[in-house]
Predict the structure.
Amino acid sequence: MPTVLQLTDVSVVRDGSRVVDSVNWTVDSEERWVVLGPNGAGKTTILQVAAAQTHPSSGHAEILGEDLGSVDLFDLRPRIGFASTTIARRIPPKEKVVDVVLTAAYSVTGRWNEEYEGVDVRRAHRVLDEWNLGHLAERTFGDLSDGEQKRVQIARSVMTDPELLLLDEPAASLDLGAREELLRMLGGYASSEGAPAIVMVTHHVEEIPRGFTHALLLSHGQVEASGPLAEVLTAETLGATFGLDLDVTELDGRYSARATS
Ligand SMILES: Nc1ncnc2c1ncn2[C@@H]1O[C@H](COP(=O)(O)OP(=O)(O)OP(=O)(O)O)[C@@H](O)[C@H]1O
């Protein structure tokens, strides 16, 4: 099982404070990880390191077998799918949905005068179909519902057939129906043959799709626990991470947590 991400003693310092603090973490290609932790724990910052968007202040990051300090980022980044609200904000609201997905092949947001290859256009339509978005291909991105926009962002992030897929809070702000549909599709994708390694940041254990295998729990930039879901998502470790007394239950591959009092 090849390693796709290896962080060794990685720290990230922002404004003089260590927002990621001496993190050691290994992700293998067959694994599907969720990163959990309270606001400000450093989840997004870790994901930015994994996406080759941020360099560690100290320590060593190896991504898809390449040393982050020496690899050409223009070669590495297309091998990584990344969906986040920061990227979504860069998508022009008037952009056609099919172009939102298509432009990923050229690592841009917003279509200008690029000549697109037929093979890319066909792939963009196929990816939209796979995420139940085919009927929206000609609509403008800004007119879609939140749930549809989230799915378009994921479709965009898998357009280049990445070896590592990073999703930052893909289910945030969705209503119950849209959340469940997204989790069902993500779970199906995560379990499908040929799916890449996946790392998904979330605040809620209820948002972990079936088929996910591992969890990294972060608190104050440090690893509170990491490993297989069943070992890590206990009342004890999750409670320590969020600073609460919790009941944690698992039913049929889905988790829930609530305060004991
Ligand atoms: N550019 C920056 N300059 C200064 N501080 C920053 C910067 N980016 C992030 N931080 C700080 O780093 C810490 C970790 O932020 P990060 O976004 O990684 O946390 P998070 O776990 O994803 O939080 P949330 O759940 O609220 O999204 C926070 O305290 C944040 O304020």
